[in-house]
Amino acid sequence: MAILLSRRDLGKWALALPAAGLLAKTNSKFGGVQIGINAPYSYHGQYNTADECLDATVKLDLSALELRAQPIEGFMGAPASLVAYPKPRVPKGETPPDPKAAAAELRAWRLSAPMAKATAMRKKFEDQGVKIEIMKVDAIDTFTDEEIDYMFGLAKTVGAKAISCEIPLSHTKRLGEFATKHKMMVGYHGHTNVTSPEAFGRPESWETAMSYSKYNGINLDIGHFVAGNSTSPIPFLEKYHDRVTHIHLKDRKTNNGPNVPFGLGDTPIKETLQLMKKNKWTFPGIIEMEYPVPDGSTLMAEIAKCVEFCKEALS
C-alpha cells in the first residue's frame, strides 16, 4: 500500500501525479466484497466538496462511496449558503438567511435543478473508478413530497443503489411509500439508543420499518449495534441480509463503549466481512472513521489502516 501523507503533502503529491488518464482506476473490492467510505463525514471537515471527496477517496484507493447529497448539490451549482457540508456557509459579515426563507429558496432550486450536472458528476467519479453506491440525505422526512421525489431522482442519476437517512421510526411509513413508488431501497441508519420507540437501535425498530414497505431496509452500523445491544450483529445480518442496503464498519466496545481502532474493540468486523465474502452478499461495507486520530498520525493514515484491515480480513 502506498504511504499516505498529511493534507499538505497530499496536495504536493497530487501535483506530481501524471495525467489521470494514465492512472489505473481505484479498486477496493476485496474477495468479492465492496469496501467504501462514508463521505464527507469520515474526512472530518478536511474534504467537503465533491471534488475534494473524490480526490481523497482516490488517494485511499477506495472505489465506493456513501456520499451525502450536499456535495452533489454543491457540484450542481446550489448556493453554498444553502447546502454546504457540514453546514451552510454564510460569507463573513453577512446575516444568515432566515431558516424558512432558506428552505423555500432551496426547494425552488431543487425543483429546477440541472440534472445534467449530476450526470456529469457521476461520469467524473466513475471515470476514476469511484462509484456512488449510496446517497445519504439529511432530514429527508422534513421535505415536501416534491423534494422527496427529487431526491430519489437525484440518487438514481448519480448511480446510487439506495438512499440512506437517519429519521424517526414513525416517519418511515411515509418515506417507504416514496421508496415503493420509485422502486428504490432506503437504508435506515441506527445508533445505540435501544429504549426510544423512535430510535433505530434494537432489531425490532428495523422490523417495524420493513413492515411498511419492501423497499424499507437496513443500514446496519455494526459498531453501534454492538455498543447499544452488547451482542453480535451477525445473527441479525444473517436473518435480514436481503434487506440490508449497506453496513457501516467501525469498532466499538460493548455497553456503549468508545470507538477504537479496527481490531481493538468488541465488534466482529473481520467475521462480518468474511461472512459477506462466504455468502456472496452484494451490499457494501462502508468505513466510518470515528475513533480519535492518535498523536503522531494523520486522519488519512488512520483511514488507510482501516482499509488495510478490511483487505486483510478478506484475503
Give the tags.
15% strand; 8-stranded parallel barrel; globular; TIM Barrel; 315 residues; alpha/beta; 13 helices; 11 strands; 42% helix
Output the CATH topology: TIM Barrel
CATH architecture: Alpha-Beta Barrel
Lateral strand order in the biggest sheet:
2-3-4-5-6-7-8-11
Helix content: 40-55%
The amount of beta strand, in percent, is: 15-25%
Order of H and E elements? HEEHEHHHHEHEHEHEHHEEEHEH
- Main beta sheet strand tally, sense and closure: 8 strands, parallel, barrel
Provide mean pLDDT, rounded.
93
Structure summary:
The chain has 315 residues and is of the alpha/beta class. It has a single domain (28-88, 128-313), classed as TIM Barrel. The chain contains 13 helices and 11 strands.
Commentary on this structure:
- By secondary structure, the chain is α/β, with parallel strands linked by helices.
- It has one domain (28-88, 128-313): Divalent-metal-dependent TIM barrel enzymes (TIM Barrel).
- The protein has helices spanning 7-16, 50-59, 69-76, 80-83, 99-110, 115-127, 145-157, 172-182, 203-212, 222-229, 234-240, 269-279, 299-313; strands at 29-30, 33-39, 64-68, 131-136, 162-165, 185-189, 216-221, 244-249, 251-252, 259-260, 285-287.
- The protein has an 8-stranded parallel beta barrel with strand order 2-3-4-5-6-7-8-11, surrounded by 8 helices. It has a two-stranded antiparallel ribbon with strand order 9-10.
- α9 links the parallel β6 and β7.
- Mean pLDDT is 93; it is low at 10-22.
